[in-house]
Amino acid sequence: MNRRNRGISFALLALAMGAHLHAIGAPAWAWAALVLCFLLYPQLAYWRARRSRDQRRAELQNMDADFVQAGIWIAALGFPLWITFILCSSGSMSLVVFHGARGALRLLLNLAVGIALGAAAAGLSWRPDTDLLTSVLCMVALETYLFIFARDGYDRAMAQYKANTQLHEQYEQIQALQAQLREQALRDPLTGLFNRRHLDTVLAPALQRCRDAAQPLALVAIDIDRFKSINDAQGHGAGDAVLQALARLLLRHVRGEDLAFRLGGEEFLLMMPGASLAVATERAQVLRHAFETLRVRGPDGALSATLSCGVAAFPRHADEPRALLAYADQALYAAKEQGRNRVVAQGQTPPAGAGGAFTSPSPRSPPHSPDR
User: Fold this and answer.
1) Which end of the chain is more exposed for a tag (fewer CB within 10 A), N or C?
2) Beta 259-264 vs 217-224: how paired, if at all?
3) Dihedrals φ, ψ of 263, to 5°?
């Protein structure tokens, strides 16, 4: 970039200064110096910077040399106003861009050194006037330099904008992927319902919110009756189809604030904030009846199954997550014991083995058989 900018701007300056040298009848050595400083020097500066280990430092040193030369020319020519103006203004822009606010001081020091050298070599004189051609060429050189400089700034800004846009898009993609991974970690891959890990995370806070709002919370423990016989007779593909059908049914029947979980195997759970024991029992009955009448397409024809449901509610039965789960589980076991395909709401009698300060789920007694 600097090679292009320096090459173009110095070539235009060479035209303007050549016009001025012609107007004042400069000697041959001045023309030779003009070719050396404004046509050959930019290429030498680029060659040096390209081979430097620290290219930025080398380019700053090149700029120092640029404006020391500019000071020499300004003093040697007697401070012509247009030439002085264009050399100082272009130098100020370049050094401030590459060196910050300290670039202005650096420019003044370089010009002062150059002016001192020029005055020592040619004597100090004052000839500020320039002819019309020189003035016009200076204007063209300055306008071209400003255009090139502005275009480079625009290109850099657009490149930065595009880079920032890409980074923002990548960040959003990463965020979406992380959210997807978090969601997948909390869901059962077969049914898409939340898993036991998520239940352990959300149940306690949900209970606390209901406690603070003086509202009930109901749990409905759900189990597919004789699910093992479906797997044994029809295969695991048929069993998976039944599980997925129940999951879809649960999602159709839950309210916006309810959450449906697959705890493992054929065991499911509904968490119903704000629902009393009676309301949850009624909704469980609707769900049980809907599943009983549902026909699931299996490999060997239509399948049907039934549900057993156990219902427990906060604060009637317990105010602690594991205890409330134990009550719902005990009610589910009672539904199994009473013949399956039914809903049982937990009574006020604690589960077997639970004391007054019940803090852990009691084991089922007797344990469920493999075919439930």
Assistant:
1) N
2) unpaired
3) -85, -20
pLDDT at 176: 87
Which runs of E-coded beta strand occur in 232-336?
259-264, 267-273, 296-298, 301-303, 307-314
User: Domain spanning 196-345: which superfamily?
Assistant: Reverse transcriptase/Diguanylate cyclase domain (3.30.70.270)
Beta strands (DSSP E) in 274-370 are 296-298, 301-303, 307-314, 343-345
Q: In which residue ranges of the chain is pLDDT below 70?
A: 1-2, 348-372
Q: Model pTM?
A: 0.53
Say if CB 353 and CB 206 are below 8 A apart. Answer: no
Strand partners for 272: 218
- Using alpha carbons only, give the angle 78, 82, 87 rounded to the nearest 5 degrees: 85
Token pair 């001192």: residue? 116
What pLDDT is recorded for position 303? 87
At 167 the pLDDT is 92
Residue-level pLDDT at 346 = 85
Work out the widest C-alpha separation in the chain, in whole angstroms.
121
Beta strand ranges found along 172-306 (DSSP E): 217-224, 259-264, 267-273, 296-298, 301-303
